[in-house]
Amino acid sequence: MLDYPLRLLPATADEWLGPLPVREAFANPEHPLAVDLGCGKGRFLLARAARQPEVNFLGIDRMLRRIRKVENRARRLDLANIRLLRVEAYYAVAHLLPPVSVRTYYIFFPDPWPKARHEGNRLFNPRFLDALHRTLVEGGEAHVATDHAPYFEQLSAVFAEDRRFAAIAPYVPPEDEQTDFERYYIGQTPIGRLSVRRI
Ligand SMILES: C[S@@+](CC[C@H](N)C(=O)[O-])C[C@H]1O[C@@H](n2cnc3c(N)ncnc32)[C@H](O)[C@@H]1O
Fold this sequence. Notes:
Blueprint: H1 13-17, E1 33-37, H2 43-51, E2 56-61, H3 64-76, E3 82-86, H4 89-96, E4 102-108, H5 126-135, E5 136-146, H6 149-160, E6 165-168, H7 180-185, E7 192-198
The structure holds S-adenosylmethionine (SAM).
The site of S-adenosylmethionine (SAM) has 16 residues, from helix 7.
């Protein structure tokens, strides 16, 4: 069992303003960085990090309870390539993650904010794509899945209008990497999947 904390905590006002030295938090800073944005209870993150020890994984979620749960599981499983950050997703991508630092984003089942008056709270919009573009390395990828058809249409349109990203074959996780939300919706609702590469 890992006997050290896996949570990143910005230590100074400057670190809170970003960029946060994320790579340096890993034992192998030279390894590529993958980010699970809105990692929830971490089913995907834990399985993927175990499968890819040569990749550093950062799980981000705003719910402390979930971050703590994933941290405990990762420590029990000796997953030294996982770090966790409890912070708002847009803020992390727009300000905290260093520029040109992320090879892969996984953004599975982001909150759909189904009511029309709440749509402005959705993560995907042109401003968020600016932040993704800022942080992805050239050729880096973002994989998205949602059960909410109107949100899928909206986010697909936002990507289609942005020439900085090209659609690639969607990422379909193997059974052991399916997130809790995917396991809940699979077979009940069609799941929209979109994967893109930063040009
Ligand atoms: C619908 S759940 C999906 C969790 C996981 N990806 C899955 O597929 O099972 C959305 C997750 O994103 C987190 N979340 C929602 N909005 C967020 C935000 N603005 N910043 C950070 N985390 C957020 C929630 O706490 C929750 O864990």
